[in-house]
TrEMBL record:
Record carries keyword rRNA-binding: no
EC category name: oxidoreductase
Pfam families registered for this protein in UniProt: FMO-like
Protein name as annotated: Flavin-containing monooxygenase
EC number: 1.-.-.-
Record GO terms (molecular function): flavin adenine dinucleotide binding; N,N-dimethylaniline monooxygenase activity; NADP binding
Organism annotation: Cinnamomum micranthum f. kanehirae
InterPro entries membership: FAD/NAD-bd_sf (IPR036188), Flavin_mOase (IPR000960), Flavin_mOase-like (IPR020946), FMO-like (IPR050346)
Coiled coil feature spans: none
Keyword terms, alphabetized: FAD, Flavoprotein, Monooxygenase, NADP, Oxidoreductase
Record family assignment: Belongs to the FMO family.
């Protein structure tokens, strides 16, 4: 798989969130020239909190959204800070900042800004600039390397730029475009309905009867904070087999109720559940997750999003027909995000320089086909194609680019947090039972590598 030739490429990275930043760092390290295009005024992606959401459609149905971040004001990390850092830049505690293990979103934003400054990435980033079109310049032209046209718009001036790149890395995230259920009567329901993408604070729901749909992490968090201001909170879950942690919260809170899925919504404000019960609600908040969306990308149908399966992608990263000049960083879910994005970025950088080569088109397509087949066999629905939940997969992935394996303490800390959250939903961010693994983590080379600064 290793080739000796090495070339520097002109690469466009779309997005200045964690995936885009680490891509820029890896590409730069490998000797490529890099332009990062970021629509916002700062780096951070989801972690650049946006309090003003009035301009956004409440259900986020537009093709190009106005607001990227779906982070709400009170959000604290669901994963502990120790597991989150990139391999060579630990997410360490800093005096005068939020020193908690599960800090607020702002602390992670500051970490990303530090990362950006430490590796001198800012000069590569064009802020306030939105990519509106990415297409192939010379697809299928015999003897020519594929080039990409990127059209972007400077948001303040409206100035349009069109540039040609050797490669494009798409790092635009996938927690912005709402994934909405289809519910009978949804269009006829006249009261307030919104997706958690635009939820920020509980105050607008004071004294209201609120139905929250979806008991994922956001659904639970939002329900628990609404309980303090709303008259009643009705949490509609896919299954009534809820975690012990959530059961404990429900049992001590008289205004939080669990319901099964919704059957229908009615013009008079009634929300009917599939068990025949109903409530009259003032508001509905859809905490139903997010969809992949690349409204700027034109691959002539080579890459498509089908029920949240982005494909065909070899190892969730490369469309075989366009690889390695088109790649995606950050598609997988249920992984330890930052180090995984870093391994993706490293592999892309090495492939573009010619240090590594991909398997043949046939072999990549076969691997994708086999993977889809294994999902079908296991009964995994299409929209969960990119849910990994497997540490070994991350290690195997890293083998493509000689990326270090996940440290044992990272794995153990992840599992300990999941277990703690399952049992102690309200308190897991402030009291824990993984002191031993935590000690091991903090003594490890990962945390001592920058201790001199
Ligand atoms: C409520 C919530 C809680 C979360 N909690 C955790 C957690 O506790 N731990 C964890 O690890 N992860 C968590 N996540 C996941 C989080 O998304 C990832 O941590 C991380 O931000 C993904 O990084 P990314 O760079 O891939 O995408 P993003 O962070 O989404 O960054 C994408 C960037 O691309 C830019 N962009 C998009 N389109 C364009 C365009 N057309 N032109 C130019 N720029 C563009 C955006 O402005 C953004 O800056 C959470 C997400 C949400 C929504």
């Amino acid at each position: 798989m290793v080739s000796v030739k090495s070339h520097s490429k002109h690469v466009c990275v779309i997005g200045g969130g964690p995936s885009g930043l680490v891509s820029a760092r890896e590409l730069k390290k490998e000797g490529h020239s890099v332009v990062v295009i970021e629509q916002n005024h700062d780096v951070g992606g989801q972690w650049l909190y946006e309090p003003c959401v009035e301009s956004e459609d409440a259900l986020g149905k537009e093709k190009f959204l106005k607001v990227h971040s779906s982070i709400y004001a009170s959000l604290r990390l669901t994963s502990s800070r120790e597991i989150m850092g990139f391999t060579d830049f630990p997410f360490s505690v800093k005096k005068g900042r939020d020193m908690r293990r599960f800090p607020s979103h702002r602390e992670l934003h500051l970490y990303l800004k530090d990362f950006c400054d430490w590796f001198g990435l800012r000069e590569m980033i064009r802020f306030h600039t939105r990519v509106e079109y990415v297409g192939m310049l010379n697809y299928g032209v015999f003897g020519e390397d594929l080039k990409w046209v990127v059209r972007s718009v400077e948001k303040n001036t409206g100035k349009v730029m069109e540039e040609v790149f050797d490669a494009v890395v798409v790092a635009t995230g996938h927690y912005s475009h709402p994934r909405l259920p289809t519910i009978k009567g949804m269009d006829a329901w006249k009261r307030k309905q919104m997706h958690s993408h635009v939820y920020r604070v509980p105050e607008p729901f004071r004294n209201e009867v609120v139905v929250v749909i979806g008991n994922s992490l956001s659904g639970q968090d939002i329900s628990m904070e609404l309980v303090d201001v709303a008259k009643e909170v009705h949490l509609s879950a896919k299954s009534l087999d809820i975690s012990n942690g959530l059961s404990k919260v429900v049992s001590k809170t008289s205004t939080l109720h669990i319901h099964p899925q919704i059957d229908s919504l009615h013009e008079d404000g009634r929300v009917s559940f599939v068990d025949g019960s109903w409530v009259t609600a003032d508001s509905i908040i859809y905490c139903t997750g997010y969809s992949y969306s690349f409204p700027f990308l034109d691959t002539k149908g080579i890459v498509v999003v089908d029920d949240d399966r982005v494909g065909p992608l070899f190892e969730h990263t490369f469309p075989p027909s366009l690889a390695p000049s088109l790649s995606f960083v950050g598609i997988p879910r249920k992984i330890i995000g930052f180090p995984f994005f870093e391994s993706q970025a490293r592999w892309i950088a090495q492939l573009l320089s010619g240090k590594k080569t991909l398997p043949s088109w046939d072999d990549m397509m076969k691997s994708i086909k086999d993977f889809y087949h294994s999902l079908d066999e296991a009964g995994v629905p299409k929209h969960k194609t990119h849910e990994i939940a497997n540490f070994e997969y991350c290690d195997r992935y890293g083998d493509y680019c000689d990326f270090p394996y996940l440290e044992q303490w990272r794995r153990e800390l992840v599992l300990a947090t999941l277990k703690n959250a399952e049992e102690n939903l309200e308190t897991y961010r402030d009291s824990w039972y993984d002191e031993e693994q935590l000690h091991e983590a903090l003594q490890s080379p990962h945390f001592s590598q920058l201790s001199h600064i």
